[in-house]
Amino acid sequence: MEINWDSLHKSAKEIMQKAYAPYSNFKVGVAALVDDGRVVVGCNSENASYGVGLCAECGLISSLTATGGGRLIAVVCVDGDGNFLSPCGRCRQLLFEHGGNEMLLMTPDGPKPMSYILPWAFGPEDLNK
Ligand code: THU
């Protein structure tokens, strides 16, 4: 499937503007291409109880599931300036569940596979061993 990275980047920047980040003032947006061609997005949503705030990727995964599931092919995550952002550890695990080792994440050095972003990841197959 053809990946339009510019379009994904644009979608990530657009949804980033909608982030609710009054405590950190650090807005995050994420957009992903799904294997059926649709694009899903997410932004962070913080909370007065700081520790329960949701990362942008949490919203993305919820949206993926709510709109029919599927496999993540390519992901762009951005900060408030629109620069490519490195997903936190927990969110790498969330992305891995739905994208596996082949999913591509855009980085300042170009697209990198999840096997590079989260090496030797624990995943669904480990539960069957
Ligand atoms: N954040 C994300 O949304 N995704 C990440 O991968 C890293 C961090 C959010 C959480 C919090 O709302 C803000 O960025 C500052 O940590």
UniProtKB/TrEMBL annotation:
One of its GO terms (cellular component) is cytosol. PANTHER family: CYTIDINE DEAMINASE (PTHR11644:SF2). Belongs to the cytidine and deoxycytidylate deaminase family. Gene3D superfamilies: Cytidine Deaminase, domain 2. It holds the Pfam family dCMP_cyt_deam_1. Keywords: Hydrolase, Metal-binding, Zinc. One of its GO terms (biological process) is pyrimidine-containing compound metabolic process. This is Unannotated protein. It comes from freshwater metagenome. NCBIfam families: PRK05578.1. InterPro entries: APOBEC/CMP_deaminase_Zn-bd (IPR016192), CMP_dCMP_dom (IPR002125), Cyt/Deoxycyt_deaminase (IPR050202), Cytidine_deaminase-like (IPR016193). Residues 3-125 form the CMP/dCMP-type deaminase domain. GO terms for molecular function: cytidine deaminase activity; identical protein binding; zinc ion binding.
